[in-house]
Design goal:
The termini are far apart. Helices cover 48% and strands 28% of the residues. The protein is rod-shaped. It is of the alpha+beta class. A 5-stranded antiparallel beta sheet has the order 1-5-4-3-2, with no helix packed on it. It has a 5-stranded antiparallel beta sheet with strand order 6-10-9-8-7, with no helix packed on it.
């Protein structure tokens, strides 16, 4: 009986120890599993952190690249604006220079035109005057188509810009008598502006326009007026040590201008 009791007791102890061992193993396995899951979670978290940092770096790089691109774009636009300003400034400068050149050319052309006009008038007057009777000449017969002009009580005769006065030997060529009137000026007259007034000159005679009478009135030669040519038949004299020209009672001093000789009333 004793033996059976001891055997049962031993068997129970073995069973208890076995159960305890199995329980410890199961607990260790659970702890191991929990430990493995935690390590995996930690590794996953670390990977997520690493990936997050990499993403942040990538985002920073992208932002930096975007800033650089914007800066480059701003610099490009600034360069373009500067180039455009410089081009506009160059265009304006070129336009100014071209305008200045055009104006200078226009001035030179106008000066040349005036000089040519002066030369043409000078030549025309000399050619025209050569065909007229010289001052002081006496003609027996007046030109056909002449007109009578009465000034005061004296009768004069006129034809083609030339005046005649009757004398003992015939008709003497003279300058126009002061006060004589013409409705139409002779062909080839010259307009002379002097001291704010306009004078009209032809073959030694000076006229002013009278708007009331609507006619051109013969006036005395105004001192200082400059004319391109003198009538045939002028004489010379010495005045203040220089040679002058005399037409009737009017004295002229020769002056060289623009390559031509003109005559100034003294």
């Amino acid at each position: 009986m004793f033996n059976n009791f001891n055997f049962s007791k031993c068997l129970g102890l073995i069973l208890v120890f076995t159960l305890m061992l199995l329980s410890d193993q199961a607990m260790a396995q659970r702890n191991h599993n929990r430990s493995g899951k935690t390590g995996t979670q930690v590794k996953a978290g670390d990977r997520n952190k690493v990936n997050g940092r990499q993403d942040a770096k990538t985002l920073d790089r992208d932002r930096s690249d975007a800033r650089d691109d914007r800066q480059d774009a701003r610099e490009d636009r600034a360069d373009d604006r500067q180039e455009a300003k410089e081009e506009r400034a160059e265009d304006r400068q070129e336009a100014k220079e071209e305008l200045a050149e055009d104006r200078q050319e226009a001035r030179e052309e106008r000066a040349e035109d005036r000089q040519e006009a002066r030369e043409d008038r000078w030549e025309d007057h000399h050619k025209r005057y050569k065909s007229l009777h010289r001052h002081g000449a006496v003609v027996v017969t007046l030109p056909v188509g002449h007109t009578r002009i009465v000034v005061g009580t004296t009768t004069y005769y006129y034809y083609g810009g030339v005046y005649y006065s009757y004398g003992p030997g015939g008709y003497v060529v003279i300058s126009g008598p002061t006060g004589a009137r013409l409705v139409v000026l002779p062909t080839g007259y010259v307009t002379v502006s002097f001291s704010g007034a306009s004078y009209y000159y032809y073959y030694g005679t000076y006229y002013c326009y009278d708007p009331v009478a609507k006619a051109y009135i013969v006036v005395n030669a105004p001192a200082g007026v400059e004319v391109p040519a003198l009538p045939n038949g002028y004489t010379t004299a010495v005045y203040n040590g220089e040679t002058i020209y005399v037409v009737g009672t009017v004295r002229y001093r020769p002056v060289h201008r623009h390559g031509m000789t003109v005559y100034v009333v003294l």
